[in-house]
TrEMBL record:
A single MF term (Gene Ontology): mannose-1-phosphate guanylyltransferase (GTP) activity
Source organism of the structure: Nocardioides turkmenicus
UniProt cross-references to Gene3D superfamilies, sorted A to Z: Jelly Rolls
One Gene Ontology biological process: GDP-mannose biosynthetic process
Superkingdom per UniProt: Bacteria
InterPro entries (alphabetical): Man6P_isomerase-2_C, Mannose-6P_isomerase_type2, RmlC-like_jellyroll, RmlC_Cupin_sf
Protein name: Cupin domain-containing protein
Domain Mannose-6-phosphate isomerase type II C-terminal, residue spans: 7-110
Length: 123
């Protein structure tokens, strides 16, 4: 729902807008933090850097994007956003697909133990 937000160990996300087939979020990544390396079954993502410098890893390929630059992640591609700088990072993420729920995340690697917890829970 628009207005939803959550604080995570790496920073936070805030839902700006949501509708049939899409969700728009603002993602704030703390300095020297990164999101989990993950995939989604039902959605693609388009990231636009608002401020800071994003190190984006998509299927093992690293790209660096600055303010005004964007990166696309296809459905099923492994991806992560990293902030390797001393400054905050803010991106706008546009999710597109038939389902944009938070449970459409498969964590492949995670700095906070969530990938291992998911594997244990599904065993």
């Amino acid at each position: 729902m628009a207005g939803d937000s959550e604080t995570r160990p790496w920073g936070s996300w805030h839902v700006i807008d949501i509708g049939p087939g899409y969700k728009v979020k603002r993602i704030e990544v703390l300095p020297h933090s990164r999101l989990s390396y993950q995939t989604h079954t039902h959605r693609s993502e388009h990231w636009v850097v608002i401020y800071g410098k994003a190190t984006c890893i998509i299927d093992g390929v690293t790209t660096v994007a600055g303010p005004g630059e964007s990166v696309d992640v296809g459905v099923g591609q492994a991806h992560r956003i990293c902030n390797e700088t001393d400054e905050p990072l803010s991106i706008i993420e546009v999710q597109r697909g038939g389902y944009t729920g938070e449970d459409d995340i498969v964590r492949l690697e995670d700095d906070f133990g969530r990938a291992e917890a998911e594997k244990t829970a599904s065993a």
